[in-house]
Amino acid sequence: MTKTRFAPSPTGYLHIGGARTALFSWAYARQQGGQFVLRIEDTDRERSTQASVDAILDGMNWLGLDWDEGPVFQMDRLARYKEVADDLIARGLAYPCYASKDELDAMREAQRAAGQKPRYDGRWRPENAAGKTPPAGVEPVIRFRNPDHGDVSWNDLVKGVITVSNEELDDLVILRADGVPTYNFGVVIDDWDMGITQVIRGDDHVNNTPRQINLLRAMNAPVPDYAHVPMILGHDGERLSKRHGAVSVLQYDEDGYLPEALLNYLARLGWSHGDDEVFDLKQMVEWFDLGHISRSPARFDPEKLNWLNQQYLKICPAPRLGELLRPRLEKAGLNVDAGPDVAQVADLLRERGVTLNEIADAAHYFYATPTPPADLLAQHVNDESRPALVALKNALQTADWNAETIGPLIKDTATAHGLKMPKVAMPLRVLVCGTTSTPSIDAVLAVLGRERVLERLAALG
Ligand code: GLU
């Protein structure tokens, strides 16, 4: 059975690159009818935090990427890592190393001075350690005995065949003195135990893969397929970072992006299905394959994300759009429950912003009586328009309250006063909304409700 995993280290928030890796792994598992595991690689005890774990889980939940197994925490599996290390030691494939940090620094320094590439020189390999007394009171690390000769090769599902000579690799530490595994060791045991069939991850891990394959072989474990996804660059071609704007997935939530827009955007970031640009998760699951992951780095384009967000705002069901606006309005101190139906407001304003935040900003006058700016009042509410406005106000007191009635009423009132429609509609907007930029004014009035509208027109006398 196909089984993939997303294995973040909880040393920060879920960033755009991580989210894309998660999405690709998730989509592949779903496409294949397989399973998706969430594994938290928390062995870096200094940098791992609960806050980061929470941020990762929140980010995954916000995106709607569900997992079938986990979250599995590596720190809960120390006994298993020790068991495998002991087995490797017993079979002569791993050994304790007592070299101190100072000693290793000196070793590397000497290698550099001799023009060599710094690498562990095997000084505690069993054959070299024979007769040596381990220093008193030093807990050893455990090193893997990497094969001395030959090549490690794999057919990367994104990058093609990659071959690395074992002479390039040294004996890596697999267990630290405190029994905590290093990254490469925890990964291979987990991938093995969890039955992972495809490892899909960022290509910053390509250098680790030959070491991981050697470890898996030593453990007599199956070697999964590897798909290393090229990194994401900013619009300027530099590696994506905070400089390019938000990189935390949850920041996009805060900034007013819909999760489906971000997912659609991430799907197209380094993967393609013909020329298709707008497609939902369900469609992606149908289409996703590893063969169409691009071999070159993707560039993050905020304008394209904005465009996609607008596409999804257009089709978001009004009740959901309303509920997404609600906390944003409340954050601005507005009492949503005391105002008009937020779903109707959302429906009316959905095309008036790139983000939910912009739409929420455009919705303030529905929930708070605006103070029309003096210059707009002076410009629009004048001797020419006032009689028509007063007549309209009076007519609105008894009119059927819906856009279909209010629209013609505004038009007829204007005509009766010898005015063009905008000569009445504009001052009406200024008085009721405090701005000249609103959706169709009849629809705005209908949603606002008679009471609020008449209250805002009261000053006309
Ligand atoms: N924990 C690693 C990271 O956050 C990922 C390991 C993997 O996917 O093999 O980069």
Layout of secondary structure:
Layout: E1 3-6, H1 16-31, E2 35-40, H2 50-63, E3 69-73, H3 78-90, E4 94-97, H4 101-113, H5 126-129, E5 141-144, E6 151-156, E7 160-165, E8 173-175, H6 183-193, E9 198-202, H7 209-218, E10 225-229, E11 232-233, H8 249-254, H9 259-267, H10 281-287, E12 298-299, H11 302-315, H12 318-331, H13 342-349, H14 356-362, H15 364-367, H16 374-380, H17 386-396, H18 403-416, H19 421-433, H20 441-448, H21 450-457
Parallel strand pairs: 1-2, 2-3, 9-10, 11-12
Antiparallel strand pairs: 4-5, 5-8, 6-7
Helix pairs in contact: 1-10, 6-7, 9-11, 12-13, 12-14, 16-19, 17-18, 18-19, 18-20
Which properties best describe this structure?
single chain; 461 residues; mainly alpha; Rossmann fold; Arc Repressor Mutant, subunit A; three-stranded parallel beta sheet; three-stranded antiparallel beta sheet; 21 helices; 12 strands; binds glutamic acid
| CATH class category label of the largest domain | Alpha Beta
Helix content: 40-55%
Task: Report strand %.
Answer: 5-15%
Please name the fourth-level CATH homologous superfamily of the largest domain: HUPs
- The overall strand count is 12
CATH architecture of the largest domain: 3-Layer(aba) Sandwich
Please summarize the sheet with the most strands.
3 strands, parallel
Mean pLDDT: 96
Unique ligands:
glutamic acid
What's the number of structural domains? 3
